[in-house]
Amino acid sequence: MSKFLLLTQREIQERLGQKGFWYMLVLGPIVVLLLLVALLKAADQGKQELSVLIADPGQIMDHRLMAQEEKNIHYYFLDDYLELNEFERGKAYQEFDVLVELNEKVLNNKKCFVFYRDQLGLDARIQLKFQVERRLEELIASQHSNLSEQAFRQIKQGIIFDFRDLQDPKNEAKEANAWAGFVLGAFILFFVGLYGMTIFRATVREKSNRIVEVLLASVRPQQLMLSKIVGIGLVALLQLFGWVLLLALGFVLLRQTLFLDVLDPSNWGQGGPERLNPLSTLVFEQLNLSFLFLHFVVFFAASFLFYGALFAVLGARSGADADGQQFLLPLIFLVSFGIFAGIYAIYYPHTLLSQIFAYLPFSAPVLALISLAKGVSLAVYTKILLSLLVLVVSALLLLKLAGRWYKNSILKF
Amino acid sequence: MIKVAQVSKSYQRKLVLDDVSLEVPKGQIFGLLGPNGAGKTTLIRILNQMASPDAGSVSFDGQLLSERHLPLIGYLPEERGLYKNMAVRAHLLFLAQLRGLNKTTAAQNVDQWLQHFDIQDWQNKRIATLSKGMAQKVQFIAALVHQPQLLILDEPLSGFDPLNVELIMNEIKALKAQGTTIILSTHNMKSVDEICDHAALLHQGQILAQDTVQNLRRTHAKGRIFVRFRGHMLSFANALWTDFTLLEQKETEAGLFDCVLQIRGERSVNDLMRSLQDHVAVEHIELLLPSMQEVFVDLITQKENQDV
Description:
Strand order of the largest sheet of chain A: 2-1-3-4-5
Number of strands of chain B: 14
Order of helices and strands of chain A: HHEEHEHEHHEHHHHHHHHH
Low-confidence stretches of chain A: 268-277
Structural class of chain B: alpha/beta
Distance between the termini of chain B: 37 Å
Oligomer: heterodimer
Shape of chain A: elongated
């Protein structure tokens, strides 16, 4: 076995031998699931009261939505086109908060615009989208196929809801999907920060107990550093896989217990579910999970190499005087910066700053996953691949540089 | 075996090794001596290729020292550490494999050494549960488990109780008998006197002296002679005349004396024997050589006086 593999294997074995790893593996997803359930329950309490006007010139929806409407959202129908200016300024329309514009070909082109006066909460967006989409699906299924709604939903293409601010109608959507992508990106940085600290501590420990002197008589410092980053990175990835698996299982359980699918006939007569399942709709139907997960892994690996090198160098610089530890705080700020850049990009996706953030190695993972979750065109996807390339090249350059810093620092006591 | 030629090394503009040259003969125990901060650790790190010299070269068996020689070198650093959560056997296996042994050979060697030191019972113990002395033994095994041709031991006796010091000294001698070349860096001059064949004294990055231990001691001999005789002390003192000064005397039994003399001028042991032969019965006579401790102090003092 090569020395690199041997060192990597030791790192993995050490982490897997720690009880903390297994506790975190099981408890982490449980906490996340509990938080999500609490979030949805809380969302039921303080809902945004909304009046929604649906401009339906083709009378496609036949003046009705699904049977189980949300009490906080009131829908009204207009059997005609409505100019945006008129909706914005017309006296008759001031009582409406939202305009849903259904063109006559919506059943074919599967796209509708949603204009709002004030920023819509995530829950309101999901509810609105859910209600309108279900009704349209019902219509498509009944008019264009012999399939049941349930069977149709298995094979359907999602309807694109383009949420736009009335004050800025050309602005693109800031949808729930973007937040889902943000959560995934933040997960990357969370795990990178968490396991980056593990790299830092492991390096400090090796240095302070002087095993490093024995190791360096057999391997090159760069090899030692890289094996530590890769070993701990693989453990982090393993934990992430575990989380994803347990969270997916949790979602399935939630869907079958708390958030029943009311369109599934087998659930009829079981007593009314507490509410429809916008969460599972988002997770299971609106997000391309396998596509997202693939990119999640790739961006995680590249980010981990990038940040891991920095954490290792700081560990190597930390001696008895702990001078390297002073640099930990700025590094943690850098990790946090990625998260804030993500939030900024959700609200202002087309600013120059958002474009820059997309290519910065510190924030690229979050922004890429936000874009990917929203759904990307070829042009946007090319930009994401370019940002990945920048991240990978930066990580490789940093690893090379860090290897030199690590070598110069690790034997200074 | 090892030839260090005009090696210099600086750290942050401070010259740590200054044109150092030395030769370590094959199959010998070479004492690398010097006060703290003399540059021993830096030289050892260069031999282990943890650092590279700014100038000069190091050769191993006539070849320029390179990474492929690492499996032929064993190293026990002064500041030792082990992974506290690993079991003894697993740790030794890990280090043996890092030194280039395959898993099977590594396992065979580890088991053999555990048996040799009669510590098979420790094999599943975590390092954290071992006493300091036990951990030192594990570290000693780790340095030689891959059967190196060159073994570099930096203060190998520190932390051991007298019994284990004896054990380790015997192991070092046994390794030499098997043909292993050993570089021993130590402050324990008694061990240098006892087991080193050659020695070099490093001071402020420079080699002050290097030779066989016997030659170093002879070179720094102070002209002291030990004499054991039967007879009268007065006769003995009269026979010395002005050529020898009596430094110490002790009557070990009635009429039997042990004395230490200082030679004055150009006199020799033979001159002393000729002076004594008609006055006392000499049982033992020996030119006293300084210990390596005295050689060490002598050389450093000379150097510091020169610098002043």
